[in-house]
Amino acid sequence: RAGFQTRAFEERFIAIGLPYRIIGGLRFYERAEIRDAIAYLRVLAQPADDLAFERIVNTPKRGLGDTALRTIHERARADQTPLAEAAARIAADATLRGKARDGLRDLITKLADWRAALKRDGHVTTLATLLDESGYIAMWQEQKTPDAAGRIENLKELVRALTDFDTLEGFLEHVSLVMDNDNEVDDDKVFLMTLHAAKGLEFDTVFLPGWEEGVFPNQRSLDEGGAKSLEEERRLAYVGITRAKQRAIISHCANRRIYANWQSSVPSRFIEELPADFITMGGSASLAREQRLAAPPVFATATPLLARRDDAWNTQARPPRTDKLTEGTRVFHQKFGYGIIIDTDDDRLDIKFETAGEKRVLDRFVERA
């Protein structure tokens, strides 16, 4: 799937010393949009970083052509100061004219504002603000290239990555270690790739993570393309499974952390379509399901339980509720928001949410509002 999802795998592989290689793409921190965003952060934390300042001074375009950039370099050499300080001095006088002067003044002013925000609001909020106010997100939104949306998703993942660090300095040190890591060794390595890039390749063992509704099949693809996009997603699922010579290990999350909030997930509909004779379930929830299937039926005519999306092996191992939720109760769900229970069926609730419409969820995933 999208390139931003490889970041967690890359950092974990580096931490445990497992060699890896990206097929058909760049490592997360090597992507142009990520390098640009990190350059902005370096300029905030280290104003004397000339390479970082040179990368962001006209990104996005601010009307600073070669002449303006040459003027900044000449001023820095003459005054023996970093480029950022030389640019600030030029912005304060009449050295530049027109769009170049206005663009440089705007950048210097915003850099000062973002440094103040860094102390006041923290590094996560500041990066999100910076990407918006600098026009960097808008730059990609205006582009019609196929990869523009993916680049924006990568930037969102970068903002999320910052939540794992207490300080901006700690994050920048981590990035330096990641970039210095040498994975180009001749030993066996893990190959990371998208499903599109995997076409034509084969491996003994293939890992297929993230098989959840909204992730795979991708919700945006379904919203934009409907049934046609669903079939394309299903074809990609087939591509992924058939890349494996011996084993294909498919996994999904019961809970997924999205921008510091935990949200319950529903397993992909594609899992239900797999032939049961060739599937082995794993995990603690799978054991609970197998015990239920092995139990004798209550009625003589009962048939074995079907592998439905809401069976035990699909859901997170949360204890059942001790209090019963009844029709008319107002509840809150982390993903769907506030709603009113309109019907109950054992531990399953039919809820009319204020913004998400009617949904059926397990009672363990909601709380009284």
Number of strands: 11
Rg, rounded, reads 26 Å
- H/E element string? HEHHHHHHHHHEEHEEEHHEEEEE
Overall structural class, as computed from helix and strand content, comes to: alpha+beta
Proportion of helical residues: 40-55%
What's the number of helices?
13
Shape: globular
Q: How much beta, percentage-wise?
A: 5-15%
Most strands sheet: 5 strands, antiparallel
CATH level 1 class label of the largest domain: Mainly Alpha
Q: How many discrete domains?
A: 3
CATH fold descriptor of the largest domain: PCRA, domain 4
CA distance, first residue to last residue: 36 Å
* Mean of pLDDT: 82
* Name given to the CATH architecture of the largest domain: Orthogonal Bundle
Strand order, largest beta sheet:
10-9-8-7-11
CATH homologous superfamily label of the largest domain: PCRA, domain 4
Query: Which runs of at least 5 residues are low in confidence (pLDDT < 50)?
Result: 297-318
